[in-house]
Amino acid sequence: MKTVALAGTLDSKAREYAYVKNLLEDAGLKTLIIHTGVFEAEIPADISNADVAAAAGYDIEEIIQKKDRAYATQALSKGMEAIIPRLYEEYRFDGILSFGGTGGTSIVTPGMRALPIGVPKIMVSTVASGDVSFYVGTSDIMMYPSIVDVSGLNSLSTKIFANAAHAMAGMLNYEVKQKANKKPLIAATMFGVTTPCVDAAREYLEKKGFEVLVFHATGTGGKTMEALINSGFFAGVLDLTTTEWCDELFGGVLAAGEHRSEAAAIKGIPQVVSVGAMDMINFGTIDTLPENMQNRNIYRHNPSVTLVRTTTEENRALGEKLAQKLNMAHKKTVLLLPLKGVSMIDAEGQPFYGKEEDEALFETLKRHIDTQKVKVIELPLHINDKKFAQKAAEILIALIEES
């Protein structure tokens, strides 16, 4: 029988958690009740708030005496981050479910994020319909809008609670039968405007016996890939779409953070890198463009996405940044430069075609790359040329075989 870790503030929402506990048990599941509140639980808990606090080196009595909500939230969230993966490793539960507002969500989700990908995680939250990147990070937490506040049982909240409980039951009781995968895993990055390239490279790699996981270079995709590289998932990395640096440096909405392009270099994972979609900075609808971008070369990718062409000066900055990251490598890294364009709309006759801008990027990279660590190869091809894609795949296979 599978077990659900039911984690929440049992000092303020005991009635709601007791209701969900009964739903889970009626669905044939066991429960592990974890108290994440500051004060005494109003229903029995298997893991007390004192246990949670102690996992991060805090004393619950001291937390109570401070009467500082921010301090308490920080202490208990750190405790959850420490205790939840430990309980999972001890086979105490199979999935985790929680309900809460901003405070409850902030306390429990660090523990959820610390669990392996694939472990069922559901957070029913009052903030689930907004920007949840702070809570989810690079994990696979399912954020479920609570619609009404998690405060009492009513005709709407009981329906939401029941749906979440049965969703968890469904995930735990349905086993996907998979054959053991013995194929080496490759991470690849793709954007809409580099899709032909990555599709062709993926097809080639799969024919050669690899499995390719493609990450959409939308900020979250890059962060997730970096986290999985750090966790040792991949035999090689085909990072052909490094556009997230444009947004990181110049205020776009799809930034992947300052540690993008580091993991493979630091871990010594063979990688082939290119400059896919470095011709664009991403924004939302056209009315969201910053004032300093409004007179630039603009392309409306779709009604909700507006692109701004990177300038010569910006491409020099991009070249310096990418070179800095790639120079962290201990060999096993190749940089491929597509001399005839870096995206679908950076080609002759297309709206972002910019020979001068691209040359600024290429020349800066060549000037700053440490060629003792990174091999630079220039190809007189467009990035979406099938020959470019196949060359990238062939080089990556060779790097993997060498290592």
From TrEMBL:
Gene3D superfamilies registered for this protein in UniProt: Uncharacterised protein family UPF0261, NC domain, Uncharacterised protein family UPF0261, NN domain
UniProt keyword terms in alphabetical order: ATP-binding, Nucleotide-binding
InterPro entries, per the entry: Tobamovirus_resist_UPF0261, UPF0261, UPF0261_C, UPF0261_N
Pfam families: UPF0261, UPF0261_C
GO MF, one example: ATP binding
Coiled coil: none
UniProt domain UPF0261: residue ranges: 2-175, 183-399
Protein name (Swiss-Prot/TrEMBL): Tm-1-like ATP-binding domain-containing protein
